[in-house]
Amino acid sequence: MKLYLKTKDFSVSGEFFELHWDPQMDMLSTFPQPKDISRYYESEDYISHTDAKSSFTDKLYQWVKRINLRNKTQIIDSQVHKLKSLLDFGAGTGDFVLHAQASGYEAKGIEPSERARGLAERKGVSLYSNLKHTGEDKFQVITLWHVLEHLPNLQQQIIEIVSRLNQDGTLIVAVPNFKSFDAKHYGTYWAGYDVPRHLWHFSRTAIEKIFQQHNFKIVAVHPMWFDAFYVSMLSEKYKGNRRYLFHAFLVGLWSNIKACFTKEHSSLIYVLKRENNPIG
């Protein structure tokens, strides 16, 4: 492990952390990893577990979320032709589960945060607190939308998650990409690091190698175009830039343009299947 850079928790605690680079896997890990990680989520500013619509940032987040919900189901529809059982691991406040159900999926969700589950319940979505509560059910699709980077005991959790996937099922993982232009541009201030909530920071190589160990192969990769703009906006705010919208738009646009050639978008969606199953 080599020191990659030092950064801090800009959104909740203000504490400093290091990112260590594993050259063999081409991924970063947050150091130290807090034993009580839950307290770093206990903030009104942590938007992933809220439905806030008060500030401009909140409203922008919610608008982009609605567009992304449609894009996510389109990606899944391209992979699933018969059975439509789906598990959303790390379901947050339940928006994707609700959207998937409305799109014809028999969808369930896992969310450890009691607060997030409560917000989901208000929308009529009942989420499980962990995998054990789903019984022995197996699913045709399992999704992790910006969740993998949060998981402690990464390899063990992957084993438990994929054990619930049908043999010919599809695993979909979306994560930030620390090899993107916006990540390199903002460095310490890049909001995609989101330490210490993000324990791991992945490259395309890292995702491929991690899931090879579990007999999975990448069959498709999709960009998350809006992430470059949203992450850049947060990064500019962390830098204290009052004209953050203008600068974030330029950086996000340039990051997406460069990624058309490098394929290193701000965030990427990986579609994975088991090695011994046909693609499609």
Plain-language structure description:
The structure is a single chain. The chain has helices spanning 56-77, 95-102, 114-122, 154-162, 181-186, 204-212, 225-238, 244-262; strands at 2-8, 16-22, 27-31, 85-89, 106-110, 139-145, 165-176, 200-201, 216-223, 267-274. With 280 residues, the chain is α/β, with parallel strands linked by helices. Strands 5-4-6-7-10-9 form a six-stranded mixed β-sheet, sandwiched between helices. The model has no long low-confidence stretch (mean pLDDT 91).
Instruction: Walk across the major sheet and give the strand order.
Output: 5-4-6-7-10-9
What string, H for helix and E for strand, traces the elements in order?
EEEHEHEHEHEHEHEHHE
Structure classification: alpha/beta
CATH superfamily: Vaccinia Virus protein VP39
Q: What helical percentage do the residues reach?
A: 25-40%
Mean pLDDT: 91
β-strand number: 10
In CATH, the architecture is 3-Layer(aba) Sandwich
Largest sheet: 6 strands, mixed
Counted up, domains total: 1
CATH topology (level 3) name: Rossmann fold
Q: What spatial form do the alpha-carbon principal axes imply?
A: globular
Work out the helix count.
Answer: 8
Stretches where pLDDT falls below 50 for ≥5 residues? Answer: none
Roughly how many Å apart are the termini?
Answer: 37 Å
CATH class descriptor name: Alpha Beta
Query: Radius of gyration, Cα only, in angstroms?
Result: 18 Å
